[in-house]
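Please produce the structure of this protein holding uracil.
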Amino acid sequence: MRVEPDPLTALRLQLEFGVDEAIVDAPIDRFAVAATPSPATVKNASSARRPAAPKAPGGESASAKSLADAAQDVPSLEAAIRGFEGCTLKRTATNTVFGDGDPMAGVMMIGEAPGADEDRLGKPFVGVSGQLLDRMLAAIGLDRTKVFITNMVYWRPPGNEKPSQLQIAQCLPFVLRLIALARPRLLVLVGGISAGTLLGREEGITRLRGRWYDFQPLDGGPPIPAMPTFHPAYLLRQPAQKRESWRDFLAIQDKLRQIG
Ligand code: URA
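Below is the modeled complex.
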């Protein structure tokens, strides 16, 4: 006897598993697909999973690199990112989240990936963790007119998963080009994903944070001081760590005074 699950319980279970986005219009009966793999089903499945853009060695999207290199200023880079189809995350996202603030302000903060609020509004860090980030900035006399805030990937991972290594690699040429074009005086690497990726380090954020590192921009210009710090979403879960973040933000304020 087949027991039908209560639909509400099944829906709750899906939400708990992180399934909170509909990707195709009509549901697919996976039991039927497994039992009778009709040619039509196989064809639909393969067209639903378009291959990603070709990869360069190291997994990065070759076309992202050429588009990023061709952009000569931040607005043209933004246009290239908005038109880019080589990141798998774009297929399920509502909006491209490029950044917020002034790219030429001299302080660039790089987070992880847009969440649901960011995807809906098309701006980074606008949910609860963004509100905490705004308060931390205000505490050292900064706001979104004095910094530029962006992420390692420009589209929301479904179900608020962490972006995969491949998705990060697909967007990385744009992130690196953005840093080279905007040439900030300092970088704030918000969370373990941006710190580990951009500094090329294996350690977790707890070990990396609180010290200055030299970030070498792509164009071979002078190194940019980079401070890894805890992600505000982590601070919301672990408020006792705000004390360490406060130290990081005071060091950022100090560095800005020193470098003018
Ligand atoms: N977390 C991030 O890392 N980036 C955002 O834009 C929002 C939440």
